[in-house]
Amino acid sequence: MTCSACSSHVEKAVGKLDGVKSVTVHLLQNTMTVEYDDNVLNDSEIVDAVKKAGYGAFVAGGNKTSNPESEKNDAAAIESQQMKTRLI
Questions:
Q1: Any idea where the domains of the chain sit in the sequence?
Q2: In the CATH scheme, what is the code of domain 4-87?
Q3: Model confidence band, residue 35 (pLDDT cutoffs 50, 70, 90)
Q4: I need a surface site. Which of 7, 11, 50, 83 has the fewest CB within 10 A?
């Protein structure tokens, strides 16, 4: 994300999902905190909503066996691809 309009767009997209209690996007940290009812909604549905909004997302700490450096590279690759798509 590159601006406050981007973070607002993501907040609205995730906030519309059933079961979401609160959403906070931290633009400078490039993170999002979501409080939701896990009986109604799951992590993958939230990630899908962010992707449908045109941005990349992954659950931080969701896979304890993964390499954090690899996750950063994946996130950077996703962001790079999205920037290219918006440019075109």
A1: 4-87
A2: 3.30.70.100
A3: very high
A4: 83
